[in-house]
Amino acid sequence: MKNFARALLAGLSLATLALAAPAQSSYPTRPVRIIVPAPAGTGPDVMARLYAEHLGRALGQPFTVENKAGASGNIGAEFVAKAPADGYTIFYAYNQIPTMNPHLFSKLGYDAVKDLAPVTQTLNTAYVLLGNKDLPVKDLAGMLDYARKNPGKVAYASYGPGTASHLVFELIQDNAKVQMLHVPYKQGQVTDVMGGQVAMVFEPFPSGVPFAKSGKVKALAVTTEKRVADLPDVPAMNEAVPGMNLAGWQGVWVTAGTPPEVITRLNSEFIRITRLPEMQKRIADFASQPMTTTPQEMAQAIQRESEQWGKIIKARHIVLD
């Protein structure tokens, strides 16, 4: 992990210095493309298109979104990693790519630290733990007690091996000293929680909160540091497992080696747009919270999360290739 940290900070040295440098007034002089490693209509795609619209108006050049989905985000990441380092190819993506994928895949066509330069984080999204309403528990603490009494029999759903919805359960089992059964899905997780085929699943707030309020499932925990106003009676996950929280986030990268003044310009523009009342409302509509960070702050977040996920992935021998 020391080598990881040195590489990350070394790769950021120019970007960090850039925060004190004047922005390059000539950028951009031609159209800019924003690569999204997710299908059209998904959360990252919708947000990227909103930013693209604002960027185009502010900077006088078209910003167009291109979807390059697949391979857990690696297709889009590799495309940007190998693009010219000129700021005309931007990566709008999510935290799994630099924090989980390097540990899950033994062979990647890019290095998330050396080949991608952070620009800024834009928003974070928490998760709600949904449980079958007929289970004899009312929260995550009760579920863990139930699992201890039924080792290896309490099944939880995920969006697939190596996803955040899988790895967070691995962390919980490790920290709480319980054993549960993993059932990976591609779709239909919440339906099967309702039907009792599996006991629970972590669902992102945008889709999870409406389910929690519907009464068709139990909300057992939220992954925010504290309880949230939308679900005031639902405990935070760290009330049952101290020190545990989980938040997904979205952010912006460019190809490593991009001129520092271009990174500064993009950082400034993305932050300005994120702070617009209309953008803050759109982010809130996704049950998410806006974020504005420097390239170095974003890099530090990547380093912390990579260390956390790397440990559990290695300990559990989770490999996706």
What characteristics describe this protein?
alpha/beta; 10-stranded mixed β-sheet; D-Maltodextrin-Binding Protein, domain 2; 10 strands; 2 domains; 321 residues
Tell me what you see in this structure.
By secondary structure, the chain is of the alpha/beta class. It folds into two domains: 2-125 and 247-315, 3-Layer(aba) Sandwich (D-Maltodextrin-Binding Protein, domain 2), CATH 3.40.190.150; 127-239, D-Maltodextrin-Binding Protein, domain 2, CATH 3.40.190.10. The protein has twelve helices and ten strands. It has helices spanning 2-18, 43-59, 74-81, 96-99, 101-104, 140-149, 164-176, 189-195, 205-214, 260-274, 277-285, 295-315; strands spanning 32-36, 63-67, 89-94, 116-132, 155-158, 181-184, 200-204, 217-222, 247-255, 289-290. Strands 1, 2, 3, 4, 5, 6, 7, 8, 9 and 10 form a ten-stranded mixed sheet that branches.
Question: Can you give me a brief rundown of this structure?
Answer:
The protein has 321 residues and is α/β, with parallel strands linked by helices.
Question: What order do the helices and strands come in, and which of them pair?
Answer:
Blueprint: H1 2-18, E1 32-36, H2 43-59, E2 63-67, H3 74-81, E3 89-94, H4 96-99, H5 101-104, E4 116-132, H6 140-149, E5 155-158, H7 164-176, E6 181-184, H8 189-195, E7 200-204, H9 205-214, E8 217-222, E9 247-255, H10 260-274, H11 277-285, E10 289-290, H12 295-315
Parallel strand pairs: 1-2, 1-3, 5-6, 5-7
Antiparallel strand pairs: 3-9, 4-7, 4-8, 4-9, 4-10
Helix pairs in contact: 1-10, 1-12, 2-10
